[in-house]
Amino acid sequence: RRGGVPGGGRSGLWAAGCHGALGGGDGPNAKALSVAPARHNDGAKMALRSDDALYDTIDGGGGIMNRSVQMPAFGGTLAPAEVRALVRHIRHLCRCAGPAWSRDGGR
Hints:
By secondary structure, the protein is mostly helical. It has 4 helices and no strands. The chain has helices at 9-19, 43-46, 51-60, 80-94. α3 (51-60) crosses α4 (80-94). The longest helix is centred in the C-terminal third of the chain and has 15 residues, at 80-94.
């Protein structure tokens, strides 16, 4: 555990506010949102999203990926390495990999 969130570190704490500490979309801020946060622990749904799509959503916010505009962009706050670590954390939570077509084998 780092920063109070298993494997999530500082960036995981920010995600936990909406997505929940275990990725269930049940964080303390979730009730106030008009669109439910993604459930990062839902392996079936998260397996449909490529790592690049997850990275872009975290970096640029939900609006650029046709998702909720309430998902803020963290690219100005988190370093690229922190965004990549958060993508790995999401993969840990869902116990899944992205679609086969999106895997490059270099990670």
